[in-house]
Each structure stands twice: as C-alpha cells, then as structure tokens.
Amino acid sequence: MKHIDLSKLFWSQCRTKILEKFFLEFEWWNNSWFHMRALSRELDEQINSIKRELDNLTELGILKHRTELKKKIFCLNPNFHLIVEFMDIFVKTYNPLEKVKAYFKNQNLLELVIINESIKTKLTEPGKSILDIFMIWEIDKEDFNRFLEKTFYWRKIKYAIITTEDFYNRLNYWDKLIKNILTEKWNIYLRDNLNIREKI
Questions:
Q1: 18-32: per-residue pLDDT in tens?
Q2: Euclidean distance between the first and final Cα of the chain, in Å?
Q3: What is the DSSP letter of 11?
Q4: What's the pLDDT at 2?
Q5: What order of strands is seen across the sheet that includes strand 110-116?
Q6: pTM of the predicted model as reported, rounded to 2 decimal places
Q7: Beta strands 63-68 and 71-76: pairing type?
C-alpha cells in the first residue's frame, strides 16, 4: 500500500479546495471530469497553482487524468485506497455558509436576507427549518438556482422571495407563516435594510 504524506497533502488552501471539490462531487453527484481552467475559475485560484496541485494529486494517486482535445482533464481516482476515509473528512467539514454569505454580498437589490444556520449541515442533515433562505425584493432566480445547485450539490434548498409591499401587508396582519419564519430559531440576518429585527 502506497504511503501518503498528509503534511504534503494538506499544506495549501488551493490543494484543499481542489480535494473538497473532487470528493464532494464524487459523493453527492458523480465522478465528474474537470479541466484545470474551469477549476481555476470556479475555485478562484491561479491557473499555475491549480496545475501544480493537480499534478501533485495525480502523482499521489488521488486523482487520475486523461487527454481530451489535446488537453488534460482530471477526476477522482475511484481506486484510491483511502477514498472512504478522505470522503468522510470532506463531507463532515464542508460548510457552505461562507459561500452563501459571499454570494449575497453582491445582491444589491435585496432589502432583507435571512438564512437559517442549519444550512451549514444541509448536505448531511435535512434540517427542520420552515425555510433555509428568506428574501425580500428582487434576485435573478436563474443565477440563484445555479448557485444553489453548485454549492449544495443538487440538494433541495427551501427558499422564498416576496416583494416589500407583500411583506408589509402580511406583517400588518401578522401572517402566521411570516411570523414563524421571522421568529424561527437560528436565523441569521445577512441583510436587514428594513430593520425587521426591531419590528418582531
């Protein structure tokens, strides 16, 4: 059995991002093949760093590659002898919360964004929250759905978006659903331009 030097394996953020991507794809979707440029864009890492880490991980036997249209593409090696142990590490440590926060920083048309903290473990536990994400005003739903699919590996994320007018109409009548959403345990207010927290 080939010895794996773990200090060599996890020493860089770039390498960790790549490993997380390949292992989570393998566990929750399929054993996808990726070109280094696509990984560079998605992981926000320099192409030279991506190339170096892909080569290192292939040499370690964790990834494998093939040539397609004169370019190398990579996937997880299903015969890697520690695949179950490594999968367990990345599944248990994956936290999409920071990715969700980063996404909403650029959604300037939204007046209110509430996420439920249970979203951190959504890939391993379905959770009991009414909604995972509640929003007021406007968002590009196609772009948002693509983000959710990529971030949560096609797990169902419960979200709702309503207009400011509809929200205040419901709030005035203390609509039961709105009340339950706003007072749900473990809510995180990513944006609150309407000062909703002061009204509940």
A1: 999 999 999 887 888
A2: 60
A3: S
A4: 52
A5: 159-162, 133-137, 110-116, 187-192
A6: 0.84
A7: antiparallel
| Distance from the Cα of residue 119 to its chain's centroid | 10
- Looking at residue 109, the DSSP 8-state letter turns out to be T
Residues with Cβ within 8 Å of 6's Cβ and at least 6 positions away in sequence, in order, are: none
* Domain match, 108 and 85 both: no
Question: Residue 36 class from Cβ within 10 Å (0-12 exposed, 13-18 middle, 19+ buried)?
Answer: buried
Output the CA angle 32-33-35, nearest 5 degrees: 140
Residue among 66, 81, 71, 83 at smallest CA distance from 26: 83
Q: Could you give the CA distance from residue 20 to residue 42 in angstroms, rounded to a whole number?
A: 12
Residue 1 lies in a domain: no
Distance CA 61, CA 55 (A): 10
Q: Which helix (H) or strand (E) holds 140?
A: none
Number of domains in the chain: 2
Cα dist from 130 to 119, 162, 166, 168, 197, whole Å: 12, 15, 19, 20, 18
Considering the domain architecture, whether residues 60 and 146 belong to the same structural domain is answered as no
**DSSP-derived secondary structure letter, 159:** E
Domain co-membership, 13 together with 49: yes
DSSP 117: G
What are the φ and ψ backbone dihedral angles of 128, each rounded to 5 degrees?
-120, 10
Does any domain span residue 169?
yes
Over residues 41-61, the pLDDT tens digits come to 999 999 999 999 999 999 999
In a shared domain, residues 56 and 128? no
**Pairing state of beta strands 34-35 and 71-76?**
antiparallel
